[in-house]
Amino acid sequence: MTVKQYYQDAYMKTFYTSIQEQQQDDSGWYVVLEQTAFYPTGGGQPHDTGTIQDKRIVNVEEVSGEIRHYIEEPFDDISGVVEGQIDWERRFDHIQQHAGQHILSAAFAEALQYETISFHLGKEFLTIDLNVSDMSESDAQEAEELANRIIREARAIETKWVTEEELSDYPLRKKPSVTGEIRLVIIPNFDYNGCGGTHPRSTSEVGAIKILDWEKHKGHIRLQFICGDRVLRQLNRKHGLLKELTSVLQSPEETMIPTAEQLIAKQKEQEKALEGLKEVLLTYEAEGLLGVQKDDYTLIQRAYSDRPIQELQKIAQHIISKREEAIVILVVHNDQKLQLVAAKGSLPTINLREVAQKVFPLINGKGGGKEGFVQGGGEAVMSKEELLEKLVNEL
Ligand SMILES: [Zn+2]
Q: What would the mean pLDDT of 322-327 be, rounded to a whole number?
């Protein structure tokens, strides 16, 4: 069994040991060490990374009691003493986040009797699931304040190995799922937990805890938060964003929200005005379309490119509302498709639905409407002018 140095000293960054064996499994090459400071994935805490001699440790997993240090390529020679180096920045971040989670969960339990039922330590933020169906702003604030007070008070964090029988001596909120020797992580008079993770000596090293947000999730509350240096990084990022927004919106932070609201309201107003102007423009366009006099109707036809079919509908509608003798055939080529609108005033007796039905198969298309007003579309297997010609020929 490898000696777990991360349990003896969570601050060990460099250590010397020997390689017991080098093997390969589905995840790649790995070495097993005499003793290790590398923390393997477990208890919700991600594994460490770092180096052993000149080899990068990309993953550390405990597989059937064996701690496997995965390397990108195998050692040529595994004899002698090797130096292990922990990526300390990553480990210390995990320490801060992990211990922060203990503190925040305990704060929710202490202040509000909200129990943590699960947690996740992610790359950006952490989540805990609380066994409540709803949570208020003031609940979050209360727990956050208590958690940060515990951090400020620099309370000691102790670890202790106990037997199952000794467990009853401690006010644990949750019975540990492991049996045999159990590792307790204790913040005296505040939190007692069965936990196999790495922790700082004092709550002060967690730095700060900030709740970011929460949402309802499967009948309970899932809460997002960050701890330690992540709080500062997040503040830096958000502050940078706000500063940028200040110049984009030409407004100081204090009036940013009303400024943004005004901008959005103004834009909506302009969109509405633009829509009205477009309508007017379409009427002018409709009135400007010249027709050709046929036996007992005037034929108005036109082929367009890249226009919404709604505009064609409006043009056709406007013409037939003004000219009872008109037949309007409009087609448009949009991307890979051809679309058409055919409409007539009250005088012509032709059935435009029948006309269109004869043409739709030619473009693998379909459409519908009334005898006096049809629309539809299909594939651009011919030019828009050809489609127009086919329609006119069917009249
Ligand atoms: Zn822990």
A: 93
